[in-house]
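User: I'm putting together a teaching handout on how sequence relates to shape, and I'd like one worked example. Could you take ATP synthase epsilon chain from Pandoraea faecigallinarum, show the sequence you're using, and then write out its predicted structure as tokens right after it?

Assistant: Happy to. First the sequence, then the structure tokens directly below it.
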Amino acid sequence: MALLKVDVVSTERSIFSGEARFVEVPGSAGELGVLPGHTPLLSGVRPGTVRIEAADGTETFLYIAGGFVEIQPDRVTVLADTAMRAESLDQARAERAREAAAALLEQQTGDIDYAKAQAELAEAVAQLQAIRRMRKQKQSR
């Protein structure tokens, strides 16, 4: 069985390095599903969950925000501004961040930076989705 070499790194450290039979990445234009032999591609990434399926079927979930993904026929490299394992995310903190960003967007004053508030809301929602996906996968075992 052909496998992909997968590396996910943040600006601070390597988060994941290993082999996989399938990788799902939140590309800037939509979800990217990558199998061995994929056509070369370079894309921006948006906040979301990277799902890495190992040869034995086990799955690893990572949260990423910002950066790029480079796809080659035998390799996937994610260079993310922020990257962490889904189990490292704090659900309560992500909920508070989502609520705070949503509240800012509801204000109709000119004193807020809407683009920043929208980005913060997108990141908080993506973190919560990563947590839910990881928990759902653990419950199905």
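A couple of points you could highlight for students: Strands lie at 4-9, 14-20, 22-27, 30-34, 41-44, 48-53, 59-72, 75-85. Residues 114-139 form the longest helix (26 residues).
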